[in-house]
Design brief:
Layout: E1 4-7, E2 34-35, H1 40-54, H2 60-69, H3 73-97, E3 99-103, E4 106-111, E5 117-122, E6 126-133, E7 142-149, E8 157-163, H4 164-175, H5 194-202, E9 205-210, H6 212-221, H7 225-238, H8 241-245, H9 248-261, H10 265-295, E10 298-303, E11 306-311, E12 316-322, E13 328-333, H11 335-340, E14 342-348, E15 363-369, H12 370-377, E16 395-396, H13 400-422, H14 429-450, E17 452-455, E18 459-464, E19 469-475, E20 481-485, H15 488-493, E21 495-502, E22 505-513, H16 514-530
Antiparallel strand pairs: 1-20, 2-3, 3-4, 4-5, 6-7, 6-12, 7-8, 9-10, 10-11, 11-12, 13-14, 13-19, 14-15, 16-17, 17-18, 18-19, 20-21, 21-22
Helix pairs in contact: 1-3, 2-7, 4-5, 6-10, 13-14
Keywords: Membrane, Transmembrane, Transmembrane helix
InterPro entries: UCP026631, YdbS-like_PH
Protein name: YdbS-like PH domain-containing protein
């Protein structure tokens, strides 16, 4: 291997001050440790239940099997009672030991029973502040603030059950970047109070809204049928299909179907695809309902270089993302979205705690038409002077990538075929292995056909996909490192393997011409020389 690595100058620092960006020193009482409302116990219980439910799908087959064999009612009640008691006790202790305050230019949080843990979060390191108002807090006009920092794998702080006005005020103060002066004890004055800033955040420039119809469309083309199949698979494996088949009613249905379709293959296929469509329609309906409940009424605003997304029917949310934290803009178009000409835009930020519910997705704008893309992106201060349009074509990677992976896919099938020659009556898997190999090769070809790039003066575009397509816009000034690797075969063919290191993660362009790799390296380093702002 012949790796070449180029990195940005680590000495580049992000300026901490702006002319009109100052920070008001908190009043003395703000320096005192503040406790949360007792209503935060509810939030703690719900959070624990979410963790248990989100990580508990793996034990569904065990629970189902136990239910089939008969659980003891007394033991079931005892287990549920103990679990409920432990969760409630844990939430109560967490509430009693949780304290927070804004001290100088940082947010401080301490918690813990036997060992006290104290987090000191500099305000200029806060990446996002989420405002959440679950349905159980709405009657009391309470809300939760979730604070996230760059590179964090979990929430740095969650201030639950705050008065809504207080939450808005704290959010404005946390998002306000502090100014640094020569006197470390002196802080600049600001024109508006924290309450005024909170109102300003709500009155920012409206740059995007999504109607109920658009959210329904988003739910239709973005449904997670594959994930449903993964979760439902273990459950289906535990169902006693033989017992169901012996049911008299089921037997009558199958007999009627066989009687009327035994001599009509077309009717059999029509019935099969009809049932498949009905199943897909049910999954799509679930996806549509989830999209509407999570995002309606969708609004995206911009104020002081901060994006604010709000929405949610049951649990109202307000997400904030500073525009200079955006590393990559991703344009995603699933198969169905390609038919209707719609995109989903993701603003990919510094890797760590992503905004959209820890799903590795970032702040998004759903159901965007081609004509809406340029005006929407033009609102971002960092790219307001650039005309952003999705490239109409891309340059594909070299076909050698496909050939190498086909060889790897054929090797297991060949080995199984050799075993089959010596064991003619072997397992049925021998007969199906080549079929599976052909399917894998077909998927590899679709992947190869969709993988490519396009180079502009200020950015490099990556194109990927299978049936749908994804475009990622990668500015040169956000590239932290470029790693160019060549095997002996690649070197002889004049090809290279590029890894683009960004704060949001690593992007790959395999089997591209060596000249393209050198162009990306040169332009990335050139941007570093001329732009001393911090890449983050």
């Amino acid at each position: 291997m012949n790796p070449q690595v180029s990195s940005k100058n680590d000495s580049a620092q992000e300026p901490l001050t702006d002319k009109n960006d100052t920070y008001q020193q908190p009043p003395e009482k703000s320096a005192e440790w503040q406790a949360l409302s007792a209503w935060s116990i509810i939030s703690n219980v719900v959070s624990t239940l979410k963790v248990l439910l989100s990580n508990g799908y793996a034990i569904i087959p065990i629970v189902y099997t136990g239910w089939q064999k008969g659980f003891s009612l007394q033991w079931s009640i005892a287990v549920i009672s103990v679990l409920t008691l432990l969760i409630t006790l844990s939430a109560l202790i967490e509430w009693r030991k949780f304290r927070y305050r804004i001290q100088g230019n940082q947010l401080e949080v301490k918690k813990g029973l036997l060992f006290t843990k104290k987090n000191e979060i500099p305000l200029n390191k806060i990446q996002n502040v989420r405002f959440e108002q679950p349905f159980y807090f709405r009657p009391m006009d309470l809300a939760t603030l979730v604070v996230e920092t760059a590179g964090s794998k979990k929430d740095e702080a969650a201030l639950a059950a705050l008065d809504r006005k207080l939450a808005q005020s704290l959010k404005a103060r946390l998002l306000k970047k502090p100014s640094i002066t020569n006197d470390t004890h002196q802080v600049g004055r600001q024109d508006n109070s924290a309450d005024d800033q909170a109102r300003d955040l709500q009155d920012g420039k409206l740059i995007a809204t999504r109607s109920l119809k658009q959210l329904v469309t988003y739910g239709l083309y973005q449904n997670n049928f594959i994930w449903f199949a993964i979760v439902a698979g273990p459950i289906a494996g535990q169902i006693q299909w033989e017992e169901i088949a012996k049911n008299p009613l089921v037997g009558e249905v199958f007999s009627w179907f066989a009687l009327h379709t035994s001599h009509n293959v077309g009717l059999q296929l029509l019935t099969f695809f009809g049932l498949l469509f009905m199943f897909y329609a049910v999954i799509s309906l679930i996806s549509v309902i989830a999209a509407v409940l999570k995002y309606h009424p969708y609004q995206l605003k911009l104020l002081n270089r901060t994006l604010q997304r709000s929405g949610g029917v049951i649990s109202h949310q307000q997400d904030a993302l500073k525009t200079h934290r955006i590393q990559v803009i991703q344009f995603e178009q699933p198969a169905l979205a390609r038919v209707i000409g719609r995109w989903t835009l993701f603003f990919k930020q510094v890797a760590g705690q992503e905004i959209e519910e820890r799903t590795k997705q970032n702040m998004l704008v759903p159901c965007v038409s081609n004509s809406e893309i340029a005006p929407l992106i033009a609102n971002l201060p960092e790219v307001k002077d650039q005309k952003i349009t999705i490239p109409e074509r891309f340059i594909g990677i070299h076909i050698t990538w496909f050939y190498r992976r086909v060889q790897l896919a054929i090797i297991p099938a060949t080995i199984f075929s050799m075993f089959h020659l010596f064991i003619p009556d072997g397992p049925p898997i021998f007969n199906w292995f080549w079929g599976a190999t052909i399917v894998v090769i077909g998927l590899l070809y679709l992947r190869y056909r969709q993988w490519g790039y396009w180079i502009n003066d200020n950015v490099v575009w990556q194109h990927t996909g299978l049936i749908g397509q994804n475009w990622k816009r990668i500015p040169y000034n956000k590239i932290q490192s470029v790693k160019v690797t060549q095997t002996r075969t690649q070197k002889r063919a004049g090809l290279a393997y590029i890894e683009l290191g960004l704060a949001s993660g690593t992007l790959t362009l395999p089997y591209v011409p060596e000249s393209v790799a050198q162009t990306i390296v040169t332009r990335s380093l050139s941007k570093t020389v001329n732009d001393h702002n911090n890449w983050i």
